[in-house]
Amino acid sequence: MNLTHDMSSSQALVTILRGEPRRLPVALALALLASLVELVPWVALWLAARAVMIGEPVLGHGLVAGGAIVLRYLLFTAGVWLAHLAAYGIIQRVRASLVTSLARMPVSRLRGFHRGDLEKRVITDTQALEPLIAHHGVDIINGVIMPLLLTALLFVIDWRLGLVALAPLPLALLIQVVMMRGFTERQAHYNDIVARMHEAQLEFLRSIGVMKLYGVDADSFRQLDRAMASHHGMTADYIRQLIGAWVGFVTVAQASLFFLVPLAIVLMAAGTLSLADGVVAAMIAAGMLKPWLALTQLIGQVSETFVAVGRLLSLCPQQEVTTGHLDEPLQRLACRDLTLSRGGRSLFRGLSLSLAPGQRVVLQGASGGGKSSLLELLSGQLVADQGDWLLNGYAIRTLTDECRARYVASVSQQAFFFVGSIADNLRLACPRQHESELWRVLEVVRLAGLVRVLPAQLDTDMGETRRSFSGGELQRLAIARALLANTPILILDEATSHLDNRTEREVLAGVRDYDPSQIQLVISHRPQAVRTADQVWTLTDGELTVTEGKSDD
């Protein structure tokens, strides 16, 4: 399923539907056939009414009508069943495609999505395809075909009745189109408000404990209340437009019935229309309204599906960018004319630096001054306004995530782990790493003794580990995982902040000795980190000062 970011919602929906080349077309064909068969009882009713008027038997007409009703039921049931199977198959393929896109998405782009928003797009928005494919497709066919067939039958009975029945429908459709103008954009805006309300609800529930400790839970509630008020206001506008369009269509469409019945009476009085034809014509005029009304009710739901598809496209691959090939030992790390602004504030401008293998740099500066941002540009989590980091002359932004991950490993202040054992987490970047190397790196970060006393040792589940380990021990486990990645560049962004001075000194020394050729960039404010550095970079008001370190080595 080849969905791309630059597709329109219509193009994407066509591509999605093509993912079911067998079951979906058969389902729609069965729905079309069921609609054709549904005309048979109406024809049988008309012929039966004429037979009654002339005293002929009507049993045969009744049997034909009954058989057609049963056949229509079987065809419609089979069509809906196949449509459901097609819908579930399509949803699974779309979700698989989105998961693949997320796995390949550049980290800098992925960071622009809130976790809750990603969950909504992958789960809820993909599920929005189900009603359209499983139900609405069949209903739309029936809603379009049946009124046309019944109108054709009215023309057969009497062309004047057919014209009267058909005349209000173009006006009704025009009213529907005019009143629903801009509905898709309004639907998208409505969905954005709903997403913000959900985020506000989650934030309220997540922070209510802390808020109560400081006695400011009312502020959090007011923020949620504003989000809900915005949601209610938009909902009112949304419903007003939808209901207005539907009522306008119904009112005009029903006018055909009010004109057709008096005309039928006039024609019968004039002797140009039989009683049987007039009664059946009135019944047909009333019957043809039902599929039309059902069709108008689907417009809002179909628009919602198009909005959901548009939201899915934001997760799809963008136009491929030519990537530089880099599969060689790292000889030189540099940045050239590096400039970055965030929130309208310049963090740094025109930075140009160079490092050789084996160098360790400690980066210092005030909180919020841009230290982490500088290194996040190197790890690919941000994209510079100008300039870039260069690996052997190749710009970081031109490399794929997979290529960059072979050169750069990063550990942040918050340690993140996945479901599985300690060994599974350590082997994240090296699935076949021998167990002896795992123990070696645990010795480096001073965790081997702690892991050995665990009942399952390396096979201990991370859920149990999180409960048993302190914040500093989890940080060291994250450092061990990064070391096992065996990258020529290692970033430690406040990754030792939870360690005491002695442990930090031992861990930094062990990390330095584990791979002496590795370039290590460390954000830390502690003097023991500075004493292990070859260079100290101090970032102040966007200006970077480089001084020689006081290495203990």
From TrEMBL:
Coiled coil: none annotated. It comes from the Bacteria. GO terms for molecular function: ATP binding. It holds the Pfam family ABC_tran. Gene3D superfamilies: ABC transporter type 1, transmembrane domain, P-loop containing nucleotide triphosphate hydrolases. InterPro entries: AAA+_ATPase (IPR003593), ABC1_TM_dom (IPR011527), ABC1_TM_sf (IPR036640), ABC_transporter-like_ATP-bd (IPR003439), ABC_transporter-like_CS (IPR017871), P-loop_NTPase (IPR027417), Type_1_exporter (IPR039421). This is ABC transporter ATP-binding protein. It comes from Marinobacter xestospongiae.
